[in-house]
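Phosphatidate cytidylyltransferase: structure tokens wanted.
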Amino acid sequence: MKERIITGIIGGAFFVTMVLFGGWVFALFISIVASIAMMELLKMKKIAPLSLMGIISLFSMWLLLVPTNWFELVVPSYFTKVEIFIFMILVLLMFTVITKNSFTFDQVGFVILSSVYVGFGFHYLIMTRDIPEHGLFLVFYVLLLIWTTDSGAYFVGRKWGRNKLWPDISPKKTIEGSIGGIVAALIVGTIFYFFFPVFSSYITALLVIIVASIFGQLGDLVESALKRHYAVKDSGNVLPGHGGILDRFDSLIYVMPILHLLQLI
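Answer:
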């Protein structure tokens, strides 16, 4: 527990500092974090990160991760990120033939889905921080909602939890805890909105609160399902007492793309 608390304080303070910096410093920091997260997924699938397949996988993830202005500095403007990513998919499929199926179609699917999951998740985190004027607040606001949901779900579930939410994936989570987390996020998110009314209306803020709280919990379940499928306790061990990068960022990288795709931020 002591190790977990120390890691949480140091890691949290460092992350907050990077968010405050913003710009290329934050983008570079998130790029490193995303690379570690991708390597954690590759290791779950028993693909060596420094193997040819591992490097191609990391490149695919970086392609989706990096800000567009970084991409345009390196690649001619007549190639889009989507076109190159599709080409990478074709290259991966080609390797199933070249390796005589030692690199399988299932592994190709894993690499593609992992690249999208990690790459786009962290990409939209960078993009949110880069929103003029309000980016800093929006990142902290979503973080606050996720942390509040987690805390509310933990304490309500521990006190009143009776009915399991999804026992096959996460045995300790309860329906009562999940609802408690949403209610806690609604209360705290509403209070902060009235002090910092960054959204055009409270309705928008309310939608952000609900989406962040519900899908933040779903993002946590997605990562739990991954770990259960590959029979691992934690995604990694880079954060003593906390596990891996995915263990700590699973909710955030699931919520950020959804908020952008719904045009809420």
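The radius of gyration is 19 Å. Residues 23-129 form one domain.

Cheers.
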